[in-house]
């Protein structure tokens, strides 16, 4: 799969631009994060309705990513001055408030174009999300239409899954807890249910129940 110059399994397009980091302007390069996983996500514009919800969610939970040696970076075609103004606007007034993640300024639209998320007719970006590993290789591409945001939980799961395969290889299955709990009356034993790319383990008897989100746990023996 590819988008613009971004191709899965190939080096991610490099960038160097001004960003707002901890409330100040700073030059940020993708190469600064060599050795760490990076989640790079694009959003259409500052001061829009859906954007603050997902940006705030990624910022508020960035420590969960950093615990697994992953950094999160946001980007749009707005200037660093627009980013800072939005950050300085209180959340109750539609602003972002203080941010724990960098926001890249892509005024020339070169980064958005390289990553294949630029909506050329409007000059804004689709909601793209890219997972880049510690070697700078692009591992995952998601591009949503303008109205639909991204899931922090799913993004975290993807990073954990890629890191697991980095360590154990593609043949290793993963144990998932609090995933899809399915029980059958009279079964009384352990049942294994295959999902998209991992196995879910559930036990017990009674009425089938579907609860909670996927949580990555330990390798299956």
Automatic annotation (TrEMBL):
Superkingdom field: Eukaryota
Record GO biological process = cell redox homeostasis; hydrogen peroxide catabolic process; leukocyte activation; removal of superoxide radicals
Question: What Pfam family does this protein match (any one)?
Answer: AhpC-TSA
Give the main EC class.
oxidoreductase
Enzyme Commission (EC) number: 1.11.1.24
Q: Per its UniProt record, what CDD domains does this chain match? A: PRX_Typ2cys
Q: Which GO terms describe its molecular function?
A: thioredoxin peroxidase activity
Gene3D superfamilies hit by this protein: Glutaredoxin (3.40.30.10)
Q: Which GO terms describe its cellular component?
A: cytosol
**Assigned protein family:** Belongs to the peroxiredoxin family. AhpC/Prx1 subfamily.
Main role? Thiol-specific peroxidase that catalyzes the reduction of hydrogen peroxide and organic hydroperoxides to water and alcohols, respectively. Plays a role in cell protection against oxidative stress by detoxifying peroxides and as sensor of hydrogen peroxide-mediated signaling events. Might participate in the signaling cascades of growth factors and tumor necrosis factor-alpha by regulating the intracellular concentrations of H(2)O(2).
Q: What is this protein called?
A: Peroxiredoxin-2
């Amino acid at each position: 799969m590819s988008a613009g110059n971004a191709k899965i399994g190939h080096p991610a397009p490099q960038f160097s631009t001004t960003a707002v980091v901890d409330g100040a302007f700073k030059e940020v390069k993708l190469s600064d994060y060599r050795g760490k996983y990076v989640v790079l996500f694009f959003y259409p514009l500052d001061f829009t309705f859906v954007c603050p919800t997902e940006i705030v969610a990624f910022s508020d939970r960035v420590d969960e990513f950093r615990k697994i040696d992953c950094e999160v970076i946001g980007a749009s075609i707005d200037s660093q001055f627009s980013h800072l103004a939005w950050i300085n606007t209180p959340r109750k007034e539609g602003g972002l408030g203080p941010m724990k993640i960098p926001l890249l300024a892509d005024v020339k639209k070169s980064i958005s174009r390289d990553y294949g998320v630029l909506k050329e007719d409007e000059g804004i970006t689709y909601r793209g999300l890219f997972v880049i590993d510690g070697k700078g290789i692009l591992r995952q591409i998601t591009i949503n239409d303008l109205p639909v945001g991204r899931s922090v939980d799913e993004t975290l799961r993807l990073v954990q899954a890629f890191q697991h395969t980095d360590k154990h290889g593609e043949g290793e299955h993963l144990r998932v807890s609090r995933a899809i709990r399915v029980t059958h009356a009279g079964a009384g034993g352990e049942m294994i249910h295959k999902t998209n790319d991992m196995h879910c383990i559930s036990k017990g008897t009674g009425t089938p129940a579907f609860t909670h989100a996927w949580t990555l746990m330990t390798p299956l023996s």
